[in-house]
Write a structure and sequence with these properties.
With about 325 residues, the chain is of the alpha/beta class. It contains 16 helices and nine strands.
Length: about 325
C-alpha cells in the first residue's frame, strides 16, 4: 500500500487558498497541501500576513514561490520557515504572460543555471526542504535530452525533489488554461526521467483524475500530485491512503462521511463569517463535494445561486446540507 506522503494536491491559482486547504484537510489528514503561488515581490512588499496565513490543521503544508532573484527567494524561504511551513517550492511551470514578463514560472526552464542558483540560495537560507515544480519542456525546447539537461543542471544545487507536470508549455500563442489542456501529456517521459535519475524524488503531475491512475503512476515514480480533480471532484482525496473513505465502506457510510465533512466545514464557515469572511469565499471551493450523489446538483445549484450574494449567511449552506440529507434519506426509504 502506498504511503500517504506520496500524494499531494497541486498549487492552483485562485483555488488552493486557505479555505480550500482547510476543506481538503477534512477529507484527508495526511495528503501534502500546497499554497497558491506567491511571488517574491508580493510576499516581501505586500500583505505578508495574508499570504502566509493558514490553519494548524493544514500541515503538512508547502509554500510555493514565484521568482528568479536568488536573494529575494532566499528571503522568502526564511519567511516561510519562520511561519512554520513544512517546505518551500519554486514554481518553474506557470505559463502565463504576466509571470513571464517578470521572469517567473515556465520561462525559467530556458535558464537552468539561474534556477540552480535560486534553489541553492534558498537551501542555504533554511533547514526545511526546498523543491521545484516544472514542465517537461517549453516551446521548441521540449526534447527528452533538454529535460535531462535541465534536471542535471538543477540537481547540482542540492535540490532532490522534482515535481514534473507531464506537459510542455507553449509560452507563445496559448493561454494558461490552454496550456493545461492542449499540449499532450507524456507520462512515459517522466517515467524515463526517474529511471535516468534514480537518486532523485520524482513526483508526477498533470491530468491525474482517479485513485486507480495514481496507483499506476506509483509503479514508475516516487509520488503523485493531483490538480484539478482534487478541486472539482474533491472526494478523490478521501479515497487516497489516509483519507476518510478508507475507514468505512459502502454507499451509506460514504454519504454519511460526506455529510459529516459538510457539517464540519459549516462550523468553519460560521467561525470565519463571524470574523468578516464572505461566505462565498469559502463555499465556492466545495461545490463538488456531492458530485455524482443524489442531491448533488441541488446542493451545487443552491450554493452557486444564493451563496454568491454579498450578504449571504452560513444558513444557506446549512439548508443545502439538509436538502442533500433529506434526499438521501428519502432514497434510502
Amino acid at each position: 500500500m502506498p504511503q500517504p506522503s506520496q500524494f499531494s494536491v497541486a498549487p492552483m491559482m485562485d483555488w488552493t487558498d486557505r479555505h480550500y486547504r482547510y476543506f481538503a484537510r477534512l477529507l484527508n489528514p495526511e495528503t501534502v497541501l500546497y499554497t497558491e503561488m506567491v511571488t517574491t515581490g508580493a510576499l516581501i512588499h505586500g500583505d505578508t500576513d495574508r499570504f502566509l496565513a493558514y490553519d494548524r490543521s493544514e500541515h503538512p503544508l508547502v509554500l510555493q514561490l514565484g521568482g528568479s532573484n536568488p536573494a529575494e527567494l532566499a528571503q522568502c524561504a526564511r519567511m516561510a520557515e519562520a511561519r512554520g511551513f513544512d517546505a518551500v517550492n519554486l514554481n518553474v511551470g506557470c505559463p502565463s504572460d504576466r509571470v513571464q514578463n517578470n521572469m517567473i514560472g515556465a520561462c525559467l526552464m530556458a535558464h537552468p543555471q539561474l534556477v540552480s542558483d535560486c534553489l541553492a540560495a534558498m537551501q542555504a537560507a533554511v533547514d526545511i526542504p526546498v523543491t521545484i515544480k516544472h514542465r517537461i519542456g517549453i516551446d521548441d525546447q521540449d526534447g527528452e535530452a533538454s529535460l535531462h539537461e535541465f534536471v542535471n543542471t538543477v540537481q547540482a544545487s542540492g535540490c532532490s525533489t522534482f515535481i514534473v507536470h507531464a506537459r510542455k508549455a507553449l509560452l507563445q500563442g496559448l493561454s494558461p488554461k490552454q496550456n493545461r489542456e492542449v499540449p499532450p501529456l507524456i507520462y512515459d517521459r517522466v517515467y524515463r526521467l526517474k529511471a535516468a535519475f534514480p537518486a532523485l524524488d520524482i513526483i508526477i503531475n498533470g491530468g491525474i483524475a482517479s485513485t486507480e491512475a495514481s496507483f499506476e503512476h506509483l509503479q514508475h515514480v516516487d509520488g503523485v500530485m493531483i490538480g484539478r480533480a482534487a478541486y472539482q471532484t474533491p472526494w478523490i482525496l478521501a479515497e487516497l491512503p489516509g483519507g476518510l473513505a478508507h475507514r468505512q465502506t459502502g454507499h451509506a457510510a460514504d454519504i454519511d462521511l460526506r455529510l459529516r465533512v459538510a457539517r464540519e466545514f459549516l462550523a468553519y464557515v460560521e467561525r470565519e463569517h463571524a470574523q468578516g469572511t464572505r461566505v462565498w469565499a469559502m463555499l465556492r471551493h466545495i461545490l463538488g463535494l456531492f458530485h455524482a450523489q443524489k442531491g448533488g446538483r441541488v446542493f451545487r445549484r443552491v450554493l452557486s445561486t444564493e451563496a454568491v450574494r454579498p450578504d449571504t449567511s452560513p444558513a444557506v449552506f446549512a439548508r443545502a446540507i439538509d436538502t442533500v440529507e433529506a434526499l438521501q434519506y428519502n432514497e434510502a426509504s
